[in-house]
């Protein structure tokens, strides 16, 4: 397992929400996080069918273009009643001609569950795969999960993505109703990040 000794890392994402979360998680280690967007890097095409495969594509692309270690995050929601969809296509379900619309994506998920008359609780999981890649081609991969259920209607203003319809197991509020620090402590990203920290630092 290669240790991360560099003090600057590229986040292979243009997502402001992810940048905020990951910068906060890395701050205690004295690591500066700069986004791929800030460096003017394109987003590579994600052609794999797994979270790990797509995380690797993004991290290696950003590392090779920037000359710095790069951290990518491929995450999404898997819904049992939809046979694991949207999964790696979570962001695709939100794509519109005018950018991503997650309200549309969440509505689509609920509509499909209703059409299937899916049983309650409508179990789901948030999945996060983190990949750290170095410019020399080496990488390390870490996976995290949090279980919960899809609820309706959407609730909360504090999260992003599918947070307003995801209620983690053992809680009565959605991720979007939680204080960010409480969500960050238990999220799929926190689970993967905990593994990354133990391995790389």
What does this structure look like?
This protein has five helices and eight strands; from the N terminus they run E-H-E-H-E-E-E-H-E-E-E-H-H. The protein is of the alpha/beta class and 201 residues long. The protein has helices at 16-26, 51-66, 102-115, 180-186, 188-200, and strands spanning 8-11, 32-35, 70-79, 95-96, 99-100, 123-133, 139-150, 166-168. The mean pLDDT is 95. The termini are close together. A six-stranded mixed beta sheet has the order 2-1-3-6-7-8. A two-stranded antiparallel sheet has the order 4-5. 30% of the residues lie in helices and 24% in strands. Strand 6 and strand 7 (139-150) form a beta hairpin.
Key traits:
about 200 residues, alpha/beta, 6-stranded mixed β-sheet, 5 helices, about 30% helix
Could you give a short description of this structure?
The chain is an alpha/beta fold. It is built from five helices and eight strands. 30% of the residues lie in helices and 24% in strands.
Largest sheet report:
6 strands, mixed
Strand content: 15-25%
Distance between the termini: 10 Å
Indicate the radius of gyration in whole angstroms: 17 Å
Note the overall shape: globular
Give the rounded overall mean pLDDT: 95
Poorly predicted regions are none
Structure class:
alpha/beta
Order of strands in the sheet with most strands: 2-1-3-6-7-8
Order of helices and strands: EHEHEEEHEEEHH
The count of β-strands is 8
Helix content: 25-40%
How many DSSP H or I helices? 5
């Amino acid at each position: 397992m290669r240790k991360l000794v560099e003090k600057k890392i590229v986040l292979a994402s243009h997502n402001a929400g992810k940048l905020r979360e990951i910068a906060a998680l890395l701050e205690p280690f004295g690591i500066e996080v700069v986004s791929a967007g800030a460096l003017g890097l394109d987003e590579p095409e994600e052609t794999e069918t797994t979270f790990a495969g797509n995380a690797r594509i993004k991290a290696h692309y950003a590392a090779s273009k920037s000359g710095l270690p790069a951290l990518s995050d491929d995450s999404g929601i898997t819904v049992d009643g939809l046979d694991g969809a949207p999964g790696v296509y979570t962001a695709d379900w939100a794509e519109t001609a005018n950018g991503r619309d997650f309200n549309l994506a969440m509505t689509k998920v609920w509509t499909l569950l209703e059409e299937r008359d899916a049983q309650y609780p409508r179990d789901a999981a948030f999945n996060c795969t983190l990949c750290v890649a170095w410019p020399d081609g080496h990488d390390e991969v870490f996976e995290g999960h949090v279980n919960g259920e899809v609820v309706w209607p959407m609730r909360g203003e504090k999260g992003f993505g599918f947070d307003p319809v995801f209620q983690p197991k053992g809680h009565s509020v959605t991720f979007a109703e939680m204080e960010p620090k409480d969500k960050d402590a238990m999220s799929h990203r926190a689970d993967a990040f905990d593994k990354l920290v133990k391995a790389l630092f």
